[in-house]
Amino acid sequence: MGGYGRGELSPGSDLDLLIVHDGSAREEQLSQFVNALLYPLWDSGIPVDHAVRTRTQTRETANSDIRVAMGILDIRTLEGNVDLVNAVAADVAEDWRKNSKTNLTQLRESSRERAERSGELAFLLEPDLKEARGGLRDINALRAIAQAGEEVALDRLSSAAALLANVRDVLHGLSGKGRDQLLLTEQDRVAAEMNFADADALMLEVARASRAVDYVMDLTWHRIDSKRSRGLFKRNKSEPLGKGVIALNNEVTIDESSDILNDSGIGLRAAAIAAQRGLPLSIDACINLAENFSAIPSPWPRSSREDLVTLIGAGSAMIRVFEALDQEGVIERWIPEWGHVRFLPQRNVLHRHTVDRHMLETAVRAAKLTRTVHRPDLLLVAALLHDIGKGYAGKDHSDYGEELIYPLALRMGFPDADAQVLALLVKQHLLLSSVATRRDLDDPATIEYVTSLVSDPQVLELLHALSIADGEATGKTAWSNWKAGLVADLVNRCTIALTGGTGIAPAEQLELTPQQLSRLDNKSLTVTIIERDDAHEIEILSPDQVGLLSAVAGTFSVSRLNVRSARTRTVGEAVAMNWIVTLDPNASLPSEEALTETLRKAIAGEIDLAKRIDERISSYRKIPGIPVPPPVVTATNDIATQATVLEIRMHDRPGVLYSVARAISRFGVDIRAAIVSTLGAEAFDTLYVTDFAGEALTEERAKLLANQVESYLLTQY
Fold first, then answer.
1. Are the beta carbons of 669 and 690 closer than 8 angstroms?
2. Do 15 and 93 fall within a single domain?
3. CB within 10 Å: which end of the chain, N or C, has fewer?
4. Are residues 29 and 110 part of one domain?
């Protein structure tokens, strides 16, 4: 039975023997036979695990103990009555399928408990090749699941199973023991015996194999759960989620009618949607994307870049989707630099993950910090790629990472200024932790040193968040409350030095051309639409009036135009607005005339925007997705503009800006300017408000406004 039954016995493993009899022999005869069989094996030092049972006893025991049942699923006749053994095998196989729901529930729980005890094989310095998650025990479990009649991609396991079994055989042979834990002291010898260049090369392949096993295991359980939740007779129904992307059987996949070869953005679009829904990306979709790969043009269009940010920003739900694509090699075709760090081990007691998985874990932590920074997109991309320079002999990974990330960021379509920020973040991602723990924070030279390297308060803000995410992903030995406190103290001192004590960095406002200024004098509503491949630009010039921003934002929402960014500016008694929008799936861009008329009606109150947007938000809430943090609203007075700056950070959804503007208008203040950004799945809105006399709000009233807007937005979640 077991490994011996499968013909996969390792040198130090036990022989699992089942002696089956028909019950006709006397107990004394049976005992003599068993002793005659086993004593020579014991005397030779071969470990034997045996049982003696009748056919009925075997069936009863297998039904009460899934470990016995799984062993018999691999039964092989050595000698004796073949028909009796075949009957036993048929009994157990029949019961295994018939009781699959109960058996698989027990198997899943035992696998979970084992993973908690032994960890994930791919990410351990000294992994247990058999018991750890993604190891040989999981491969056997997957075979048993397949024998229960479930769909299991066993064809994807053959090379992984062979590699892990070979490593185990060599380990047993070299150590002379049946121990399955691959210790650091033995990795070099095993690598040499198997003709690997070194232990790192061996552990890279071990990680690759175990990740493949883990991926198939996750996929298998998801499919089982999905089938059970659908019910036996429920018809499969697809749900459109985006252009060419559908949900089917609780997975996100690509519509069969999609022309993948001519839609280079469909892979990132599907991945972003899957991660934000908390659903896996189907294995068929991943294979399809790999086999029919269409390169994203360089530089990437804005939509692809934002889909990447949306994917990363999904938190832990991102890892399953990202690694599914990585299993098919799609990630490194998008980001060739990823191939070098893929499965790269870190033989460092501080690190618990391979380089690639550590960067994913850092991105997960960074996703929780997006409310704390002005540019969550830069934080997330920096987190994903901060160690991209590791694994190059003779090169400092921070310095070489800077060299790699700058051209990579440009290829991704980031403007030069953003690419430089990303390069700085990667180069200096260890700066704050190093200085905070090794330098005197009361020494002005320390603050001068840090601010000479990071001279922008918003970049310092990003570096602080990246340091937290990196430290937390590394582990408790690398990041403690004490260290976090030192870093926060350092950042606070540097921020004060950079901002003159205000902590407020200037915001970029809308600049107007002479032509726009002249058109503002007409004091009439005008709409200009500039169509683009990736997103559309809409310019609106209008007389200033209460509720204008909410009317425009609401009109866009009901027209299924998604705001990606906006700049507004009040000039005298007129307002200029510049919007960048994308279309919902199956939506069409309205004409300038139609949009002007809809806006006119909305401003005049002839359209019930609130009702129509509430309906859209209600339907949006019904869509499953990942948990998201609540909105964060802050208010500060800006001396330079003599206005109160209201900053709103929240998860994007239909009608976000409409809700924000509506909440502000209820407070009785004037919105003088707005700067709106949607970065991935995060909305970041900055509004400059004054009282009707054109003055900034009092500190008390500003705080009250922030609390009221935040409370209102919470009711909309």
1. yes
2. yes
3. C
4. no
